[in-house]
Fold each of these.
Amino acid sequence: MPASGPGTFTTAQATGQTVGTSGPVRRYQVQVEDGAGVPAEQAAAEIQVIIADPRSWAAHGKGRFQLVAADTVPDVTVKIATPKTTDRLCASVGDTHGELNCEVTGGIVVNLKRWLLGSPQYHGPATEYRHLIINHEMGHLIGYQQHMACPGAGKPAPVMQQQIKGLDGCTSNAWPYTREGAFIAGPPAP
């Protein structure tokens, strides 16, 4: 996995149906830093599946989402970037230390390291941790600016908990909602 890259991106030439039950449509593009070793179309397909999942934001009236290609102006850009590029792109919102992801004006920056390797604090495969990355950062974009804390030992961590910084007794969780449709909440994080 490269620690740095050229800072240029390839946009996935992929489109999808609008998913979601209500709310504004947010058109999103997926871009991958050149040389990252992740095909942009593959990442876009995976993100589209995450967003369309019945446990995700779109299934619960928090907005509608549509994957769009490079010839459409997006509302949101999801960039998968090397750790050094992530640090640079996220600098306006804080130091990501080559480890974290961030939400910035107009988009999400996903750290390639986290995309490929997951998080040591998250008990599950890297592919499942990707669900958490997308749901957590999309949560910020749709208005959940406040992080949440663990609601109690043994309970699922809220998707808005910064699980990469520790679970505080909760169990790993990548989704804002349960299979039954209940929102997984916690108290505001300090």
Amino acid sequence: MIALGVILLLIGFIAKIAILWTLGIIVLVVGLILVLLGSTGRAVGGRRHWY
């Protein structure tokens, strides 16, 4: 999700498309939150590990 967020941010910035910029920020923040929850050992979405 973090990689997708960064890609959307870059495409939105280069193409000057505001909706892609906004979606990129949202996806990036959600990805970072999931990384933080996963690194603390907390189960995310009912699973402790995602493979």
Amino acid sequence: MLISRATTADVAGLARLLCIDTAGEGVDDQAVDEFAIDLDRWWADRGDSHAAFVARSARGEVVGMAWVAFVPRVPRPGATRRMSADIQTVFIRSDHRGRGLGTALVEAASEHATRRGAAHATAHSSRRAVPVNGRLGFASSPQLLRTTAPGT
């Protein structure tokens, strides 16, 4: 398996994974194609703030992904370019799970966040991924709190 930073050439593969993650393994190709157009536009508008990493099969097919979003933070004296990162939407196709791809993708996204200067990164984890992310250095923090909008 190969882990690499995604490019616009990977939009169709990313769109397919996002559709599978949302609807299950049986996705409609036309719906994927339509969503790929929306995803391509969305990402074009956010290329500086969002990066994606992909896992490819031996045939080059996109079988896993991880996104990292960068958030500028309020400047402080002596630190005018503060940033944090949030790792989101880590997903591996079911027939490729259990091979360490999620770990490799989160590592790639975390390393990218560090290289871009993020002071810290958060990870949105499924229950199954909490131990994996813990092994990668993510830990619960009593200072990091969240709220959820009603109805979500």
